[in-house]
Every structure is written in structure tokens, then in C-alpha cells.
Write a structure and sequence with these properties.
The chain is α+β, with helices and mostly antiparallel strands. The protein has helices spanning 3-12, 58-70, 97-101, 103-119, 133-146, 155-169, 206-216, 221-231, 238-265, 272-292, and strands at residues 21-25, 32-38, 41-47, 77-81, 84-88, 93-94, 175-177, 186-188, 193-195, 202-204. The strands form three sheets. A five-stranded antiparallel β-sheet has the order 1-2-3-5-4, sandwiched between helices. Strands 6-8-9 form a three-stranded antiparallel β-sheet, with helices on one face. Strands 7-10 form a two-stranded antiparallel ribbon.
């Protein structure tokens, strides 16, 4: 959808009170986003259809967003139409990677993550998805082969690695995961943190969110240790560390392949080639470290 079509649709919504002003809101990797201000307040309008190649289904995103609001984690959904969601605007600072990596901020993030994992299922309504990273990688592999991707020659190696990592992770606890813990999905309003953007939400192992939190925000070894100690209340064994690092590698491989698929399918103005290269570098570094552990 182009900007003018989106703005026309925004103006036609029946929910506004008085005149409205709009502004584009950057940062979305699967959505087109705007802020809208009317006489009643300020809102975010998100445009986005299902993206089957990424296992992204908007019915699930909406249910997760509503459950997250009910659990006190996320702003309220105020209006929904086909391909469009309006949510309350939060006047807050969007975190960046150095913010997330700060031990004081991690001490605020981890309780929020615990609430996501354990409180959202109490409020979730309707059918729910499971996000199993090893399935996602296998599905991405098929999509990349079907699309004659430039990365096809490497796919067998990625599948071999995936089998080894899945075996290393072993049996898991099931919680409700956010599954996309980029820094920009945390908001700090000065009093509390908010967690937003539930595109990939679903039941999962907590190790995936922890691995994603570390890898997406460039945590170093000491910062990872703080994160894990906080989440597991100091009960971090060598076995748990090995399983965690395997899941973190899988998280990085999935992010790399997400970008590879986006190179084939996305119309958004994002340099996916560069993003693929960046994440493959992170993945190879993490996997080399994992193999030496």
C-alpha cells in the first residue's frame, strides 16, 4: 500500500473526533505505520496483511496485543478493520541497543518478560500459534529454494546446523513468547516499560526470547550472564547455558533467513541484503563460539 492510499483510508475511519493530523512512524519491518492526533488524543495506525512466508498471521497478532494489554504490558487496541489496527499512542522513549544492554535496564526488562511469558496466556482468547524456530528455519529453506534465492547453495549447511541445534536444545518449558525482542519494541515512559508489536507472538521456549534479547541487542558475555541470572533467579547450570547458546544460534540463523526471504518478497524500502549480511556475521560468530564451548 502506498502512503497516499494509506492516508486516505486513515481519514475515512469513523472513530476520529474533530480534525486529525497525521505523521509517518518509522521502524516497522512488516507494517506501514502512522501516528494520528485528534481531539481525543493520539494513536498509532498500523497497516499490515498476513505474511504467510513469515508465518505472520494478523488474527494472532491482534489476539496477542489484546491479551498483552489485559495483562498490563501493552497499549490498548481501540479499532480494527481488515489490514488495519489502531492502538493507543504511548508517549515514551523507544529503547536502543545500548539501553537494553545496560544492567539496570535489564533488571527492568526481565520482570516484564516474565509477565509476558506467564501472564498473557491467562488473557489470550481464541486459537493461538506456536513459534518453533526450527520449523521456521525449515520452512524458510523451502521458500528460498522455491524462489531460487542467491543463498540456495548454503541451505543444506544451514539445515545440518539446525538439526544439531534442535537436538542440543532438547525438551523445553512452554511459555508465551514475544519472539521479536528488538530494542525498538520496548518503550520507557519514565515510570514503566511497555512491550509492543506482537507480529510473531506465540507459545515457545523462554530460551528463544532470551537468545533473541541477547543477539538482537548485542549483549556481551557479562551482560548475557546478568540477563540469565535475573531470569532464572541465579539457577544457571552449565547444561542450561549450553541449551541457551544453541537456541541463541538458532535465533540468529532464523533472523538471517527472515531477511533472505524478505529479499525475495518484501516491497518495503529496507536494505535487506545488508541486514542479511549483518545477521549472518552475528550467526557465524555465535555458532563458532558455541562449537568451542
Amino acid at each position: 500500500m502506498d502512503k497516499e492510499t494509506a492516508l486516505k483510508r486513515i481519514r475515512s475511519l469513523p472513530i476520529w473526533q474533530g480534525e486529525i493530523s497525521t505523521a509517518p512512524l518509522g521502524g516497522g519491518r512488516t507494517n506501514l505505520n502512522f501516528t494520528v492526533t485528534d481531539d481525543s488524543g493520539r494513536y498509532v495506525v498500523r497497516f499490515g496483511d498476513d505474511i504467510p512466508e513469515h508465518q505472520l498471521m494478523r488474527f494472532n497478532e491482534l489476539a496477542a496485543a489484546r491479551a498483552a494489554h489485559a495483562a498490563g504490558l501493552s497499549p490498548a487496541v481501540v479499532h480494527v478493520e481488515d489490514g488495519l489496527t489502531v492502538i493507543d499512542y504511548i508517549d515514551a522513549k523507544t529503547l536502543d541497543e545500548p539501553d537494553v544492554a545496560d544492567p539496570d535496564m535489564l533488571a527492568r526488562i526481565i520482570p516484564l518478560l516474565h509477565r509476558c511469558h506467564h501472564d498473557i496466556p491467562k488473557h489470550f482468547r481464541g486459537p493461538a500459534l506456536i513459534f518453533w524456530v526450527f520449523h521456521v528455519i525449515r520452512d524458510y529453506t523451502a521458500t528460498l529454494r522455491d524462489g531460487h534465492s542467491n543463498y540456495t547453495a548454503q541451505l543444506n549447511d544451514y539445515l545440518d546446523i539446525t538439526e544439531k541445534l534442535e537436538a542440543a536444545v532438547g525438551p523445553v518449558e512452554i511459555v508465551f513468547g514475544h519472539n521479536d525482542l528488538m530494542a525498538a519494541n520496548f518503550l520507557d515512559d519514565g515510570k514503566r516499560l511497555w512491550l509492543i508489536d506482537w507480529d510473531y507472538a506465540g507459545f515457545n521456549s523462554p530460551l528463544f526470547d532470551l537468545g533473541g534479547l541477547a543477539s538482537n541487542n548485542s549483549l556481551n558475555e557479562d551482560q548475557e550472564a546478568v540477563m540469565l541470572d535475573l531470569y532464572f533467579d541465579g539457577q544457571v547450570t552449565d547444561e542450561l547455558l549450553h541449551r541457551y547458546h544453541a537456541m541463541k544460534c538458532a535465533s540468529l540463523l532464523r533472523e538471517s533467513m527472515w531477511s533472505m526471504v524478505s529479499e525475495l518478497t518484501s516491497n518495503l524500502d529496507i536494505d535487506y541484503v545488508a541486514y542479511t549480511a549483518e545477521n549472518l556475521t552475528r550467526f557465524r560468530r555465535a555458532y563458532d563460539t558455541y562449537k568451542q564451548s
